[in-house]
Amino acid sequence: MSKSVDLFVHPSNTLTLLELLEMNGMTVQYNCRSGFCGVCRLVVNDLSKVDGDCEKRGMDNSVLSCCAVPNDSLEVFMSGDLSGNLLYKR
Ligand code: FES
Question: Which H or E run contains 20?
């Protein structure tokens, strides 16, 4: 089972994906919040809508949510490979 959320983002956004999700009442697993542990990795529908360090992007459209900075609205979801990253409404 996969869960997804549509995140509405202003083009001038400077907040990370993790910060935006938290501001919208979502809980995402995290640890270091600085791009080292990988715990916060989430899949998005379009990598072109996310700025940030390309080395932190996965081949499966995944990004480290603590480093990725969305520049447009996007869908964020989890797959079977990322089952540890539960995303849910509080
Ligand atoms: S929380 Fe550790 S890489 Fe994002």
Answer: helix 17-23
Cβ proximity of 30 and 39 under 8 Å: yes
Cβ of 66 below 6 Å from ligand 1: yes
Q: Which CATH number fits domain 4-89: 3.30.70.270, 2.40.340.10, 3.10.20.30, 3.40.50.720?
A: 3.10.20.30
Domain assignments of the chain as residue spans, ordered by start:
4-89
Mutate to test the pocket of ligand 1, among 66, 69, 82, 85 (most ligand atoms within 8 A of CB): 66
Average confidence (pLDDT) over 27-34:
91
pLDDT score of 89 more than 60: no
